[in-house]
């Protein structure tokens, strides 16, 4: 299956570079380019994109708003958004995760990392690097309750954790730490298939569309807290 990729960035030079890279791969193709969020949403529908590489800062409708619109549209339920950002410590990225993005990637990443990100997202997995998980997500999602950043928290998330089994909670903690299924399996001394089953059950119980949303839930519910450096 060919992965249909949409590029959304207001810099034409970057879009051109991404297009050359993506189109050079036998299993993916660029189906369109958008210079702002509104155009990205429209083209995602028209071109039946599988993965959208979305810049956050664009004129008019920005990447955050566009991500939210794509994630909220039932007709685009299978579309995955990967946020491209210059700074991995940007709270707009966390807001994008809350809005439904499957993950994010720094614009300074290696070409191979971008291709892996596309394939990872297309496969229904979340792209969350360990550095991003321990840094960005911990910094912005698990803020002090007295801070204004807590105003978007959903108290119901903590209550929903009660539906998880002890093992599912244990696996969720590992997912929030940025570990892969294989790594979690080794840590918990179970098979990768068992881990996958627990992850899928946790996603169903918590209403999470992918691993990225599981991480958001783990931090916002208070199950996982950031390390104090």
UniProtKB/TrEMBL annotation:
<feature type="domain" description="Response regulatory">
    <location>
        <begin position="4"/>
        <end position="122"/>
    </location>
</feature>
<dbReference type="GO" id="GO:0006355">
    <property type="term" value="P:regulation of DNA-templated transcription"/>
</dbReference>
<dbReference type="InterPro" id="IPR039420">
    <property type="entry name" value="WalR-like"/>
</dbReference>
<dbReference type="InterPro" id="IPR001789">
    <property type="entry name" value="Sig_transdc_resp-reg_receiver"/>
</dbReference>
<feature type="modified residue" description="4-aspartylphosphate">
    <location>
        <position position="55"/>
    </location>
</feature>
<dbReference type="GO" id="GO:0003677">
    <property type="term" value="F:DNA binding"/>
</dbReference>
<dbReference type="Pfam" id="PF00072">
    <property type="entry name" value="Response_reg"/>
</dbReference>
<dbReference type="Pfam" id="PF00196">
    <property type="entry name" value="GerE"/>
</dbReference>
<dbReference type="InterPro" id="IPR058245">
    <property type="entry name" value="NreC/VraR/RcsB-like_REC"/>
</dbReference>
<keyword id="KW-0238">DNA-binding</keyword>
<dbReference type="GO" id="GO:0000160">
    <property type="term" value="P:phosphorelay signal transduction system"/>
</dbReference>
<keyword id="KW-0597">Phosphoprotein</keyword>
<dbReference type="InterPro" id="IPR016032">
    <property type="entry name" value="Sig_transdc_resp-reg_C-effctor"/>
</dbReference>
<dbReference type="InterPro" id="IPR011006">
    <property type="entry name" value="CheY-like_superfamily"/>
</dbReference>
<protein>
    <submittedName>
        <fullName>DNA-binding NarL/FixJ family response regulator</fullName>
    </submittedName>
</protein>
<feature type="domain" description="HTH luxR-type">
    <location>
        <begin position="157"/>
        <end position="222"/>
    </location>
</feature>
<keyword id="KW-0804">Transcription</keyword>
<dbReference type="InterPro" id="IPR000792">
    <property type="entry name" value="Tscrpt_reg_LuxR_C"/>
</dbReference>
<keyword id="KW-0805">Transcription regulation</keyword>
């Amino acid at each position: 299956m060919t992965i249909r990729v949409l590029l959304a960035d207001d810099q034409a030079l970057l879009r051109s570079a991404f297009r050359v890279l993506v189109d050079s791969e036998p299993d993916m193709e660029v189906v369109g380019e958008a210079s702002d969020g509104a155009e990205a949403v429209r083209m995602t529908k028209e071109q039946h994109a599988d993965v959208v590489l979305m810049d956050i800062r664009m004129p008019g409708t920005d990447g955050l708003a566009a991500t939210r619109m794509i994630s909220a549209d039932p007709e685009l339920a299978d579309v995955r958004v990967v946020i491209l950002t210059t700074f991995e410590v940007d709270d707009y990225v966390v807001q994008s995760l809350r809005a439904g993005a499957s993950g994010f990637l720094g614009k300074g990443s290696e070409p191979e990392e971008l291709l892996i990100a596309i394939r990872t997202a297309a496969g229904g997995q979340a792209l969350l690097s360990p550095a991003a998980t321990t840094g960005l997500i911990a910094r912005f999602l698990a803020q002090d309750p007295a801070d204004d950043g807590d105003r978007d928290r959903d108290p119901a998330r903590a209550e929903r954790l009660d539906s998880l089994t002890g093992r599912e909670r244990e696996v969720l903690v590992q997912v929030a730490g940025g570990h892969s299924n294989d790594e979690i399996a080794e840590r918990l001394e179970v098979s990768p298939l068992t881990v996958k089953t627990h992850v899928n059950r946790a996603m169903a119980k918590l209403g999470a569309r992918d691993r990225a949303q599981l991480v958001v839930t783990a931090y916002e519910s208070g199950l996982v807290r950031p390390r104090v450096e």
